[in-house]
Amino acid sequence: MNNLIQKLDMLHPLVGNTPVIALSHSHINLFAKLEYYNLTGSVKDRSAYHSLRKAVENGNITKDTVIVESSSGNFASSLAQICNFLEIKFIPVVDPNISPLYLGFLRSLCEEVVMVKDMDESGGYLKTRIKRVHDIIDSISNSYWINQYENPYCAEAHYLGTAKEIFNFSTRLDYLFVGVSSGGTLSGVSRGVRELSPNTMIVAVDIEGSMIFQAQPKVRFIPGMGSSIRPKLLDSCCIDKVVHVSESNVVKGCRALRNQHGILAGGSSGAVYFAIDSFFKNHPSIKEKPEVMFLCPDRGTAYIETVYNDEWVRSKGLI
Ligand SMILES: Cc1ncc(COP(=O)(O)O)c(C=O)c1O
Questions:
Q1: Could you tell me how far CA 72 lies from the centroid of its own chain?
Q2: Is residue 126 located within the same domain as residue 241?
Q3: Residue 270: which domain range?
Q4: Torsions phi, psi of 30, nearest 5?
Q5: Do 300 and 230 reside in the same domain of the chain?
C-alpha cells in the first residue's frame, strides 16, 4: 500500500468528530461545535486532510511534490503539520495579518515561509497572495497548489464529515450559522445539512469590508474570515440569509463568548456568536425557542495579542 496513505490513515482519528456543547441563552437553545479540537486546532484540518488525501489517491501528490498554498494562517498550519508528517515539502504564502503564533508554528515546520507585503485594492491580501502562489508554481516543476478557494474536496470534507456529525448530535436543527472565508466549510456543510434537514435555515456570516457577498471594500485586520474575492466554492452553496459583522463587533462577540460561556475562541467564532445574538434579539416574533448551532473554527490563543488585547483593539479603532 502507498506509504503516504498509510500515514494519512494514522492521522485520520485526529480529524473531525469534534464535540458539541450547549450554551445558555435567553432566546434560543444554542449549541457550539468546537472545531478547535481538530488536529492542529482548527476547522481547516478537515479540508487540508481531505484535499491532501484525495490528491495522493488521484496521483497528483507523491513524496517528491512541493505543495504550495495561500492562507491567512489556519489552512497553512494544517497543511504544514500534515506535510511534515508525510515528509513532503510545503511552502505557505501568508500575509502580515497572520498571528505571530501561527507564523512561528509555520517557521518551525517549513523551510520556506513566503510573506507578501502589499495589500490588494479591497483592503485584504488575498489577491497578492494568490499572485505569489502563481509565481512559485510557475518556477517549480513538481509543485502542486491545493487551491482552497476552488478545490471541491475542501468542501467535500464538510459535506461528508461536519454535516453528518451535526445530525449525530441532534435530529432537529432550526438554524445553522457559518462564518465564511474560502467558502469550503459553508459550501460542504450547507449542502449536507440541506439534504439531511431541508427546513434548517442556513445563515452565512461575513465581515464588513469583505468582498464575498458585497462590493464595499474596507481594510480588515482580523484573520480567518472574509475574503477579497468571491470564492468559486460558494457557487455550490445553500444559503438562506447573509449577515455582516463589523470588526468591532467581532471583538465584542469573542469577549462575550469568553466571559459569558467560558469559551476562548478566535475571531470567526466571535463574529458568528455576535451575529446569532443580534439576529434573535431583533426577531422577538420567533416564539418557540429554536435550536441553533454554530461552529467555533479555532481557539482564541492566537488572538490574545489582538482581539483580546485592549491596546491593539484601540490602535485599530475597534473600540
Ligand atoms: C478561524 C477561521 N474561521 C473561519 C474560516 C472560514 O472557513 P472557510 O475557509 O472554509 O470558509 C477560516 C478559514 O480559514 C478560519 O481560519
A1: 10
A2: no
A3: 3-37+158-315
A4: -110, 135
A5: yes
- 29 - beta bridge partners? 291
User: pLDDT tens across 94-142, in order?
Assistant: 999 899 999 999 999 999 999 999 998 888 899 999 999 999 999 999 9
Structure confidence at residue 123 (pLDDT): 80
73 C-alpha vs ligand 1 centroid, how far in Å?
A: 9
Residue-wise pLDDT for 219-278, tens only, equals 999 998 999 899 999 999 999 999 999 999 999 999 999 999 999 999 999 999 999 999
- Protein residue whose Cα sits closest to atom 15 of ligand 1: 224
Of 119, 145, 171, the residue that ends a domain is 145
- Measured from the CB, is residue 270 less than 6 Å from ligand 1? no
- Ligand 1 in reach of 295 Cβ (< 6 A): no
Domain boundary among 102, 123, 145: 145
Question: Number of structural domains, the chain?
Answer: 2
CA of 138 relative to ligand 1 center, distance in Å: 27
Q: pTM higher than 0.90, yes or no?
A: yes
Query: Any idea how long the chain is?
Result: 319
Dig out the grid coordinates for 167 from the structure.
445530525
The reply to whether 259 falls in a domain is: yes
Ligand 1 centroid – CA 223 distance (Å):
9
Does the C-beta of 249 come closer than 6 Å to ligand 1?
no
Integer CA distances (angstroms), 295 to 20, 131, 290, in order: 9, 31, 17
Report the pLDDT value the prediction gives residue 216, as an integer from 0 to 100: 87
**Model confidence at 1, in pLDDT bands (50, 70, 90)?**
low
Residue 179 CB–ligand 1 contact under 6 Å: yes
Element (H, E) at 246: none
